[in-house]
Amino acid sequence: MMRCPIHRLSAALIFLSAILYGAVASFTTNVARAAEAVTRTPHVALILPLSSPSFSRHADAVRQGFVAAAKMAGGNVPPIRIYSVNEDTLNVLTIYEQAIESGAQIVVGPLTRNGVAALAASTLVTVPTLALNTLEPHLPQPARMYLFGLNIEPEARQIAQFAFHDGRRNAFVVSDGTPLGKRMRQAFLEEFARLGGITVAEFGFGADQASLSKLRQASNLGVADMVFLALDFARARTVRPYLGNILALYATSQVNAGSADALAAHDLNQVRFVDMPWLLQPDHPAVMVYPRPQFGDAIDIDRLYALGIDAFRIGLELLRLNRDPALDGVTGRIRLTRDQQFVRELTAAQYVDGKTVILGETR
Length: 363
Hints:
Radius of gyration: 22 Å
Strand content: 15-25%
Largest sheet: 7 strands, mixed
CATH topology of the largest domain: Rossmann fold
Order of helices and strands: HHEHEHEHEEHEHEHEHEHEHHHEEEEE
Number of strands: 15
Number of helices: 13
Structural class: alpha/beta
Oligomer: single chain
Strand order of the largest sheet: 7-6-8-9-10-14-15
Distance between the termini: 21 Å
Shape: elongated
Number of domains: 2
CATH superfamily of the largest domain: Response regulator
């Protein structure tokens, strides 16, 4: 998922929200009356948590990217209506139905995982809907719902493939106890094992000297040929000096700190990782055509802006009833899988002497 603080409800509560929604007749009546007052016009609906104190900044970045892509598309695009929601899943369902009643031909959103789960559990999805997050495996996915997001698990799986194709077969995995770190770790372990690789040892992150010394000793035993760092930039930077220069080092986009100074990048020398072309290849033809707002050091906000660009482009393909959409997107090379998920193939890069070197457009 996206790298922003999304609070999860239990699956039971999400299903309960959908059931309660259907039972509250006054809500439906109000929505119907509101819809009558709005001209029913064919349009593209963008539903984002712009009214959420927690997610409004993230949502606005998606909105900016979406609108920028729409402007680049020219005049042959249906009108766009932006619908603001908050974190309440009942609010998401109400606004979604309002968008449909107002003539939405396609809906892009919701953005939060809880909002996507609540919508999937409802019976409201009657037009193509591009949800900007993922669903838990056990939750239903309506026939007209498609999934597209910045989830970390596909990145970790791509890194496993990247390393295996490089000839790596025996991995050390270093991870921490954060939810994101656990997700990176698990996705890598499963994919590396599926390919035929072996995880020979795992280490929990520790910044104390004893933990770092233990890591240094293990990296010199000769039993592994690679290390996967299921860590963010700061933690990866801490452990990197203790891993030497013999083992191949791999990580996800979490080690890309964007505008970090060259000294910080030097600390991650030889680490290979993947990230979106928007951040790694600003001169790429698929990237440079779009305006680039300045979000400062907030690299995750930059990623969400890029998500908005590609979300618009995918939505347009769905609107055109393209059965096999494939895009050279700013978030990666995008293709549609059989389970109605749009997956991104990312750009491979490596830190070399304080600089980021592209290893190939995609792996």
